Structures are given as C-alpha cells and as structure tokens.
Amino acid sequence: MALQRTFIATVVMVATVFGAEGASAGVAPRAVQAPVAQATAPTAAPAAATTKQSTTETTAEPVCARLKGAEACVGPDGSNRPGVTIEDTADDKMHPAVEYYLNGYLGTKYVIHNLARNGEVRGSREIGRTVTFRAALYRGGHRVKYGRWKTVRNIAKYPVKRETRVSPAAAQDRSRVCTSTKGAATTCFTERATVVFACDTKADQYQARAEYFVGGDPTARFEIHQLAGLNTCGKAEHGDLSVSMYRASVFDHGRRKGSRLYKYN
Fold first, then answer.
1. Would you state the pLDDT for residue 30?
2. Could you say which of 11, 30, 48, 109 is the most buried, measured as most Cβ atoms within 10 Å of its Cβ?
3. Quick one: DSSP state of residue 160?
C-alpha cells in the first residue's frame, strides 16, 4: 500500500514537471518574437537618411523642358548642364532653340539657336535669379513647334541683375560698336566683359532684335527680342566671350521686316 502511494506521488511529480516544461515551451516562441520586432524597427532610419541624401543630391540637377528633337535645360554651376542650354536630340532638317525670359521681366526675350548637329549642346552661363524658358523647333527662320513654359528660381550662384532702364543713347555711350537698321533697331556691344544691347528706336508696331554670334562659333546664334517699345533696350551678358558677327533687325512678330548683312567684329 505504501509502495502504491509512493508510485502515485512520483507520477504526480513527473506530470507537474512536464506541465511546467510544456508551459515554458509554449511561451518561448512569443519571447523570441519580441527581439525580432525590436531589431526590424530601426531599419526605417537608414531608409529615411538615404531618401534625404538623394533629395539633397538632386537639387544640383538641371531642370529641363523637352520636345521631340529638343531638350532645353537650366542648371546650377555644379550640374552637367550649367546655365541655360539647348540640345539637338534628333537627326532631322529642323534645329532646336531655347526661348527664355530673365528675372520675371517680359519686356525682353532671349533665344539661343542650336545650329550644330544631333547630340550637340549650346547655351549660355549667364542667367538671372529667375528663368522662364521653353524648348522650340525651327525650320530655317520659322518656328514650327514649341513646348510649355517652365520657371526656375535661385539656381544661379551669380545671377545677372535685372536692368530695364537703358536707353539707346546710354547703350551707345557704354558700347564700343553699334549698328542700326532703318532707324528702328540698334545693336550695340562692349568688348570686355561682353554685354550686347538690342534697342528699339522707333514708335511702331515692330520689334527690334539683335542677332549675333559669340566666340567665333557659327553653330550657336543668339537673339535679343526687345518687346518693351520705343527707346528701350534689352541686355545680354556673355562674360569673356567676344561678339564675332552681329546685325540689327526689325520684326513683325515672326516675320522679318528689315535687316542688314551680318558684320564681322
């Protein structure tokens, strides 16, 4: 009888120990899962840091406007397309151009025609604090297609200042060379720290334009369209690049009304 009681007590003790071990085994998976959750939570921080870094890097990238056959961009000095540029992206009979305004002033429009071949880029490093630009396609002297306007701000480290109160007389005083067409359009420029003026000298419905090349490069034609009216001048800066060919022209919107042959500087 005593032996039977001892056997029963032993069985109870074994069952109790087994039950305790089973309970511990059942809790163990939950205890292991908690550290896993704690380990995965911090991985979100490096992802956020990566996003922040990539965003900082993209601020140095140019802003571009595209057409089929043309890509116009405005970028900071540290980018692969500094200033305002236009790239020819198609091998066809048309050439691309970038049209732009500086510093929010609509009285003067600037145009750079890329007359080089497919894949070539032309442009100017001299841009304002605000640049409103678009890409266009030309066949000869006629614009056949253009895109939407885009505006970028505070992208230039040394922006061109806005200057809209230059009269034709003041432009001539500040310049070394001037030429005129029928008393309606005058093109003047300086020799050092090259500045080009396009001046409207007649009260009519036509606009004055300066058409010129700089640095002896015949594959990039620059234009200043003066839209503000009588006795006003538009100004473009070209740094150390000197004017190589130039002329003054009069236009009725897109139609040429008068000009002389290009002169060589």
1. 33
2. 109
3. B
